[in-house]
Amino acid sequence: MDPDRFIELAAAIEAEMAKVMVGQAELTRLVLTALVGGGHVLLEGVPGLGKTVLVRSLASALDLAFARVQFTPDLMPGDVTGSAIVTEDDSGRRRFEFQPGPLFTNLLLADEINRATPKTQSALLEAMAEHQVTTSDGTRLLPSPFFVLATQNPIEHEGTYPLPEAQLDRFVFKLVVAFPEPEDLVAIARRTTGGAGPAISAVATGAELEAMGRLAREVPVASHVYDRAARLVTATHPQRPEAPEEVCRYVRYGASPRGMQAVVVAARVRALLQGRFNVAFEDLAAVAAPALRHRLFLNFEADAAGVDADQVLAAVLAAVESS
Amino acid sequence: MSPLLAFLAAASRSVRRDRAREWAVRGLAVAAAGSALVQVVSRRWPADPPWAPLVAMLAGGLGVALVGFWRSRPSLVEVAMLADVGLGGRERLFTALELAGGGGELVQRQRADTEGWLASVDPRRLGRRRLPRRAVVVALVGAVVAGGLALAPNGAVDRLRAGRAREATREAGADALAALAAEVAKGVVGPDAARRRALVTELRRAEGAVRQAPTHAAAVAALSRTQATLRGSADPTRAGGRDAAAGAGAELARAGASAEAGTALIAAGTSAGEGLAEMTAGSSGASPEASAELAAALAQAAAEASGGPEPALADQLGRAADEAAAGRPEAARAEMSDAFRRADEARGERAAASLSALAASLAGLAPPAQAELAQALDQAAAAAAGDPALAAALAQAAEQLGQGRIADAQAALGAAATAARNLGADDDLAAQMAAAGAGIQAVKDALLADASMAGSGGDPCATPPPASDDPSLDHTGRGGIDHRRMHEMFSGDAKVQTTPRPAAGARQACPQLKSPAAAGTAGLPGEQGRGGSGGQGSGTSGGSGQARGRGSGQGGGQGHRGGGAAGGGAEGALGDRRPGAPTEQVYVPGRTGPGRAQGLPSGATGEGAGAPLVAYEQVYAEYRAQALTQADRQLVPERLQGLLRDYFGEDE
């Protein structure tokens, strides 16, 4: 795939998405960035912000198979991955046959993933990391491309199970879905409360999406940009000398090397989406928060002071830029 | 050159200009701050010249600027980074520079994208940065402080310069002493070698003392101690012998039969070498000025001697003058010393020949002439007390002649001739000692004059500068020729030779230096009062300054309260340099006493001729009473009162 086709496809996808998603252009761009980079996305937002619509629309624009799983406390791992059931053939012989679960799709919407038990949540670990599922009768590869877009409600904490760090680390981005502006609400109302809503056309295939990802990984990154990204990640560790005061005070654990990978890949995609052919410092700054906010583990003092990961990351960016 | 490199080259020039301005300001800040600090510090520890540390600070600031600029020269990579940040390149330039040799579609697209962007950007915009504010403030404040302090007067610099000037004066004096020592050291041979070495040692010790002296007063004190040491080591018989010969010659010259012998004996009693050595002592050193002074003195001496009875001396003095004029003062002094040695020997020979001729003429004298001659011989014997051999011979001749024993009188005159011949023995050491003494005195005078000019402010003891450029007015041999004395020494005019002269360097010391050793100018033993009349001096041909040690060198310490033997310790007009023996004759204006002017030939027109002399003991009480009364009435400056009381021993 050539860069012009890349930019063309990306623009087409965003245009299709914009038919349905109002006021979420940046969110759409970031979701697309993650998907092109081959990563999974965790969407956090209150109910009714269009998280499910976003994923469905994306699936439609990319002509990808879509599955949705509503995570509840009684959801079993087998409900997600699939399980063996007893079937009877024509001759009446009974045997166990694996019935694939909703996991076997291109685009999986894991709704309210924090409602499921850790046992069920962990069922996604192998699938998200290795794109395969291990069942009683062997390992089955998941379709390609395979993306998990999970959602979680930041308000309700009763009956929820926070995602473990290992699973959080599997998401490339954690995106916070902001409440729409009044004018956006007006637009939403006009579009969705009238007649039939806009239809989304498939403008790209999964294969093209994968090709876009391969092209994006070829975007040149200068050595000092790599250095900047590395300093960005190391500065999130409180024991590092380059860590700013906020990190030393509020952070318990900093970002992993997977966070560095996420930042660089996302920066490459972003640069190409903007029509540039090299990664710039601003690309790193733009993707730092989505890529690292869920990889910082804050301490009780941050909780008590009301300091969130985005504030800490802002201090980290400022420190890195000034150094 | 690719567009990328061309752009980077242009951007690099902009960056270098920018950094040059930045480091220039920093250099100025360093120079200004350093200069201000130097100005503050110089108020306590001054530097001379004052501009030297400021120049150093400016050089330092320039060095800081140059080194800083050199070290901050940007590489192409750094320029690319700066351009990406400063011109909004979004890391295009750095990436393109890093991937310059790479391939691949995206790399090529990146390079093309970069070149397209370069076309829209002016690289000169990269260097327009503001100057470092802190450096600008420091430079301005430092310049104001440094400039203000530089324009304000700095008393510390003046004090430093005054101190250095004084040090230079002491160094010059020490150099003069070193030159004297070097001259004396050349002649350390012969029977007086040990004494010459002692003289050299003393001169070098004095040189070292002057160099290391912290103040002029300490240097003058050291020189005075050296003078006292030299007086103690002087051979009293030399000067005494000459005085005796001159005195005896003066007596003999009264009588018609012995006039010629008397004149020759007077000449033998005069060491022209000592006189000229004293006169030219201030010209020691190898400087062109010193050589010129020495040449002038020698030329004058040669001119005077050419019309006298010693043409060979004139020739040698002329050669010595030529050597000095050619810038070879050492050769000139060697020639001069040899000339005087020969002249002294010749004079002695002539005196001996004259006495021998007198002896031969005894038989042909009429009885009245014999009686007159006998009386003259008797008086000459009394005047020759300083030379026992001459005195005894003359006395014997007088007695024998008075008794009519011509042969015995002739034999006695022969012995007197022998004694007169011995006067011409090598007297170079005495001349050198006189020259050394004069040289030391010259250095002392210079230090005293410098101290007076530095701190007198109208003090009556301050040494005034010469009133005229007429060198003949300078009797001290420093920078001038005493033409009258020169004529006395070399023309052969015996009458004029009897004119007393002031001792070399004999001037009233300024007691404000508060050093008893610095007070007064003790005449050295070698200094000769010529057939002294009263004038200043103690009578018998030994007058060498006021109440000084006699020319015979016996003045030191004899009968003095508190005085050391041989003049050691305090010297000069005060302290133990008061007149020696109670019977020593001193001149008292307006007083007629039993003392008579001695040593004056008939018809002498010397200065002070006929002035009465009285014994010092007769007037001491009056001196003491008057002085103490004046001191009690505060009629004497306060700083002199202590000296007065110390001199006259008020507590005694």
Description:
The complex is a heterodimer of chains A (323) and B (652). Chain A is 47% helix and 17% strand. Chain A is of the alpha/beta class and 323 residues long. In chain A, a hairpin with a 2-residue loop joins strand 6 (132-135) and strand 7 (138-141). The radius of gyration of chain A is 21 Å and the shape is globular. Chain B is mainly alpha-helical and 652 residues long. Chain B contains 23 helices and two strands. Chain B is elongated and about 150 Å long. The A-B interface holds A 2-3, 215, 218-225, 276-282 and B 81, 90-92, 94-96, 98-99, 102, 104-107, 109-110, 113.
Précis, in short:
The complex is a heterodimer of chains A (323) and B (652). With 323 residues, chain A is an alpha/beta fold.
Radius of gyration of chain B: 40 Å
Number of DSSP-assigned strands of chain B = 2
Most strands sheet of chain A: 5 strands, parallel
Number of E-state strands of chain A: 11
Q: Percentage of helical residues of chain B? A: 55-70%
Q: What is the CA-CA span between the terminal residues of chain A?
A: 38 Å
The H-and-E topology of chain A, N to C, reads as: HHEHEHEEEHEEEHEHHHHEHHEHH
User: Per DSSP, what share of the residues of chain B sits in E-state strands of 2 or more residues?
Assistant: under 5%
Number of DSSP helical runs of chain A: 14
- Give me the secondary-structure category of chain B: mainly alpha
Key features of this structure:
heterodimer; A: 323 residues; alpha/beta; two-stranded antiparallel sheet; 14 helices; globular; B: 652 residues; mainly alpha; two-stranded antiparallel ribbon; 23 helices; 2 strands; 62% helix; 1% strand
